[in-house]
Structure formats: structure tokens, C-alpha cells
Amino acid sequence: MRVTKISLLASLLLCTSSFAIDNIEVTGAGKFFYGTVDGSPDGTNRPNLFNKEGAFAQFGIDMGVGAELGAGFKGKIAGTGLATANMGGNIANAPRATGMMGSQVWLSEVYVSKNVLDKTAVTLGRQSLDTPFAFTELWNIASNTFDAVLVENTDLSDTTLLGAYIDKGNGVNGFASVNPAITDSGRLKNPFKKFYEGAYVVGAKNKSLSGTELQAWFYELKNTAKAYWIQGDTEYSGMTFGAQAAVLNPDNTLATSANSKAFAAKIGYTGIENLTLSAAVSQTDKDGSANFQIANLATGGNGGAQSKLYTEAWWNFGYVGAAGATAYNVTALYNIPDIVALGFFYTDVNQRAENGNNDMSEYTATAAKSFGSLDTTLAYVYSKANDYNDAKYYNNIQVYLTYKF
């Protein structure tokens, strides 16, 4: 989608006299994210915790305006801004969103939607998506979005059918979830780039069975790859069960054309009030492609991209979906009402030597509490990976502050 078309859409939402704008809703959030580590990529010159050399921090703001536009149309325009506020050289040497130093502002959402038939809705423009191989990652201070067309239909009982064409996105992997796209002068240029050569997505979700959701997805990345995802989740008498199967077939004209496959299973227990327990295991094919992992294709689909597999780590993405990886995850969540929500997450990944031997272990503990409009989270991550910090354990402390207004 061309930038001029986005501008035209924004004008349509805010300035047109053709629609009777009503029910305007303004949303926003101010953020400050901070983290500090005592590890380094090669294990040398390791910084101390809370020293600026091992710290990353950033301020962010999200602002959005949604409205009913008349004639059944709804629309939204939202922007995201990031600033390091001259923290470089003081408390942190790096921003929370990698590469986005200084002040940056862009339109994160600009779309219109309408029910074209009784139970068929169409959304056109820049938006968030939530599908297994192409989704908006929410862990960072700024989230990636897409220039896309999304069609949703609910004519079939207990069933949602989805179809989408994804034209562009601003996702990258690693510590960033948005493409910085900085010019030589340090200014932000249009961060939205072609999503491969364009991609078609179709999916179906069904809840006909009590307590059960089944879903199936197919992706056609033009001249790049085809992908499939099947998943089923059910709950019965306090027990939860889940199964996933995924296949990604690169085009045979590419230099790397090995098929990537993954299977995962999960079991959980929710029978005790305020307590959620789960354990999961996943296995990826040893012949899979290193460039097309079972992970988010919107943020690279390789090392650093988040995966929808049940075993995904809390912080160290890019391991569970790699080829030849056996992964385990144990999660415990306990909410003490009106006091604190606690979380414990353990992930262990064992990768075959033939696929790189990038083993990873991670222990994460979190504590979250809201004070009115202020959401706070403190996280401690103790982890090691064969490809980082000379395969030695290191500490990672993170603070998340979000004020909603």
C-alpha cells in the first residue's frame, strides 16, 4: 500500500463530510520499558547489572481515535512514538526497540471496516493481525502491524472463516518488533516494506464442541513459500489439552527449499482458583530450513522471531521453532486478588548438533500489579544459550510501566 493511500485513508477518517462521525473513542498509553543484562554476545567484557553498557530503555506512546463513520462504516487511526530522551550515555546505551534511537513517530493503524453482508466484515488498511505464521507481537514497547485486507465471516454456526491479503509490514526479528528504517540523517522513513511478495491467508476457527476450539490455516507467500497450521485446544473438568502441527514449504526455486515441520502438545490444569498450570513439548523436523523456521514470518521467520508453539520462551525467542529442536515448557500463573499476579516460566531447548547445537535454557519469574491506570510488571530472567555469552548463564532484569489514558 502506498504512503499516499494511507494519507488518503487518514483524511477520510478525520476530515470527510460524507460520513456522520459518531461515537468517537480516544485511547492512549504512555510507556517506559527498562532492562539490564550482565551477559554479552561473546561472553567477554560482560557488564554489571544496572550499568549503562548492559542496559536498554525507552519511552513510548500510543494514541488512537476510533469512530463510527455512518453507513455501517467504522474506522480507526493510531500513531506510535518512541523517544530515548537522551538516555544514551546516562542510564542505558541502547533503546528497548533495537535501532530506534532518538525520537520516532509513525502511523501504526489506519483502517476502515464494514459489514458488507449480515455476517461478513471487511477491514481495509493498516491493522494488527493474529494468525499463527503472521501476527502482531505484543512484547515490545512498539508492536508490528500490517497493510492488509481482512475478511471475516460467521455464517456457519460456531465457526469463523477468515481470509486476508497482506501487502506490507514493519516487522523485524531480534530485540525489535518494528523496522526502524532510519535514513543516513537519522530520520525515520516509511518503515513498511513488502511482506515477501505479498501473501494470501485463509483460516477457520470452530467451537462446535463444548470447551473446544479447532483451527486450521493456509498461507501462500507468492514465489516464496506455502505454510499450514492445524491446532486443537479443549478444556474438561479443570484439565486443558492442546495439540499443534505446522508445515512450512519454501518454494523449490529458492536456494533453501527444505520443509520445516513442527508438532507440539500441551496439558494444563485450572481446577484451583487463581492458579493455572501447564506443561508443553514440541519437536521440529531435523531437515527444516534455518531461514524459514516455525515462527512469525512477519518478523523474519528465523533467529529472533517469536513462535506460536506452546513451548515458546518468555524472552529468548528463535529457539523452539528452529530445525532439529526438542523443546519443553512449564508455566505456572498465580493471581493473588488485589495484590499481585505472579508467573513462573521454564523453557528448555535441545537442538541437534547437525542443526547448529543452539541449546537454550530459560527461567523467568514475573510479578505484575495495576495501580488504577498504571500497569506495572517486574521480570527476572536467568538463562543461557550456546550462541550467546559463551554458553554461560546470565541475568536479565526488566521493568515495564504502562499508563493508560
Blueprint of the fold:
Layout lengths: L2 H13 L6 E16 L17 E16 L2 E11 L19 E15 L2 E8 L2 E2 L2 E2 L10 E8 L5 E11 L23 E14 L5 E10 L3 E12 L2 E12 L9 E10 L5 E10 L40 E12 L3 E12 L8 E12 L2 E12 L8 E11 L1
Antiparallel strand pairs: 1-2, 1-20, 2-3, 3-4, 4-5, 5-8, 6-7, 8-9, 9-10, 10-11, 11-12, 12-13, 13-14, 14-15, 15-16, 16-17, 17-18, 18-19, 19-20
The residue fraction in helices comes out at: under 10%
Strand content bin: over 45%
Structural class: mainly beta
Mean pLDDT: 90
Question: How many individual β-strands?
Answer: 20
Describe the largest sheet.
18 strands, antiparallel, barrel
Low-confidence segments? 1-13
What order do the helices and strands follow?
Answer: HEEEEEEEEEEEEEEEEEEEE
Number of domains: 2
Distance between the termini: 31 Å
Please work out how many helical segments DSSP would assign: 1
Q: Radius of gyration over alpha carbons?
A: 22 Å
Shape from CA axes? globular
